[in-house]
Each structure stands twice: as structure tokens, then as C-alpha cells.
């Protein structure tokens, strides 16, 4: 799974906050409507962190925009979501949040293209409608989810004086997924001066915790139990979490 979604490329350096949303069943999607300003801010940070790069990549590919144009459109899209309270119209009974957000994005970029055409008095926006671009949007969302969960795991390990456990996980799973040469458990044991059995146990523990952190992020980014279970199946190919 990690091989499919890590790492990000470097075509844009704009990133969302790595700060964690409060550990609660209250999802970020619902929390953006909260009367509490702190809850709203944390919710928008969580949504921005998860969706910035999927939105950016989608704009570049579907609408044929340059790096800078795509970044400006992405920034404008999220600003519109907040300023126009777009998420107030989201109904989890009608669509999954990812689908709803993509529809809002298409509407936003199309409106911007119409405005630019009126200003320039000519020209047509370049729109590519291949299905694989829709799949890239979903893939980038999962990559973002995994990247955020890895950052959560690193912060957790560093706070708990367990940095070596994360480093082992990083060396064996994350770096190899990013294209580094494969490494054996024996080689890891030599590098960290630990028995292979200890390496095995540490990796198993980190993988379990990483999976749980992915599930925690999914809880933040879904508005219902049904949507959550669907996204779990999408990410892990399982029926129950």
C-alpha cells in the first residue's frame, strides 16, 4: 500500500498543517459549522492538509494549468469554501465528501475560466475529462492521508522518546516506498544494533499504530459511519475497521 502513495513529488511546496484535530468522533467536516472558532479553525486545517494537494493536482491535470496558476486556483478554492460557507450545503446522504468537494472544485474553476474569458474576450479553457484524472484525485487524497498519518506517527514517537521506532519504520517502509533500495531485517539490525527479533517487533508495532492513525484521520474526514466504512474499504480494502 505504501508503495502506491508515497512520497509526494516536489512540484509544489505548499502544504497543510500537520497539527492534529482533537481526538473525537466529531468530524472535521461537521466541525467547520461549529459555533466555536477554535474548533472551526482546527477543522479547516485538517481539511486543508488532506485535500490541498489532491485539489492542486486535479486542477493541473484536468484544467491544464501551470504550477503557479494551479496554486492560485487552489488557494482561491479553499478561500471560497470558507468565505461562502460552501460546506453548509453538504449532505452526506446525497454524496461522499470527496465527490462533493470535487464537484465544488469543478464549479469553482469553471467559473474562474468564464471570468477570464470575459476579460480576455476570447479563448477556451482547456478541459481534459478522462476518467483517469478522477482516479488521480482519489489517489492523491489517499497519498495525502498516508503522509499526514506518517507525520502524526513521527510526532507521537518523538514526544514519547521512541524516535528509534519511527526511524526503523521510516527506513524499512517509508524510504523504500519512496524509491530507496530495499533493506533486509538483518541489515536493519546491524544498522540499529538490535536483534532481528526486536526489529520485527518494532516494525509490527509501528505498522499497527500507523494503520490506526490512518483510521483516525479518516474519522476526521468523513461525516457519517457509512461514509467512514466506505473510505476504509477504499484505503485498505477491508469491510470493517
Q: Which structural class is indicated by helix and strand composition?
A: mainly alpha
How many individual domains? 1
Average pLDDT over all residues: 85
Number of helices: 10
Order of helices and strands: HHHHHHHHHH
Low-confidence stretches: 3-25
Number of strands: 0
Span between termini: 16 Å
Tell me the radius of gyration.
Answer: 20 Å
Kindly state the percentage of residues in helix. Answer: 55-70%
Outline: elongated
Proportion of beta-strand residues:
under 5%
The largest pleated sheet is described as:
none
How does this model look, in words?
- The protein is mainly α.
- 68% of the residues lie in helices and 0% in strands.
- The chain contains 10 helices and no strands.
Features:
single chain, mainly alpha
Amino acid at each position: 500500500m505504501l508503495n502506491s502513495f508515497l512520497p509526494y513529488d516536489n512540484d509544489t511546496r505548499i502544504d497543510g498543517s500537520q497539527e492534529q484535530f482533537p481526538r473525537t468522533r466529531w468530524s472535521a467536516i461537521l466541525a467547520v459549522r461549529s459555533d466555536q472558532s477554535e474548533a472551526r479553525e482546527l477543522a479547516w486545517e485538517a481539511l486543508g492538509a488532506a485535500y490541498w494537494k489532491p485539489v492542486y493536482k486535479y486542477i493541473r491535470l484536468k484544467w491544464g494549468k501551470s504550477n503557479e496558476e494551479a496554486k492560485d486556483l487552489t488557494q482561491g478554492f479553499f478561500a471560497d469554501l470558507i468565505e461562502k460557507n460552501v460546506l453548509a450545503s453538504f449532505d452526506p446522504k446525497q454524496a461522499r465528501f470527496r465527490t462533493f468537494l470535487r464537484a465544488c472544485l469543478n464549479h469553482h474553476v469553471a467559473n474562474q475560466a468564464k471570468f477570464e474569458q470575459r476579460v480576455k474576450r476570447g479563448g477556451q479553457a482547456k478541459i481534459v475529462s478522462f476518467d483517469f484524472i478522477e482516479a488521480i484525485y482519489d489517489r492523491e487524497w489517499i497519498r495525502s492521508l498516508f503522509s499526514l498519518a506518517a507525520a502524526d506517527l513521527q510526532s507521537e514517537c518523538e514526544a514519547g522518546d521512541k524516535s528509534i521506532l519511527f526511524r526503523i519504520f521510516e527506513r524499512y517502509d517509508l524510504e523504500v516506498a519512496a524509491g530507496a533500495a530495499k533493506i533486509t531485517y538483518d541489515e536493519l539490525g546491524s544498522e540499529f544494533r538490535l536483534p532481528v527479533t526486536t526489529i520485527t517487533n518494532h516494525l509490527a508495532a509501528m505498522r499497527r499504530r500507523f494503520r490506526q492513525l490512518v483510521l483516525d484521520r479518516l474519522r476526521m474526514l468523513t461525516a457519517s459511519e457509512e461514509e467512514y466504512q466506505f473510505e476504509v474499504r477504499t484505503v485498505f480494502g477491508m469491510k470493517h475497521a
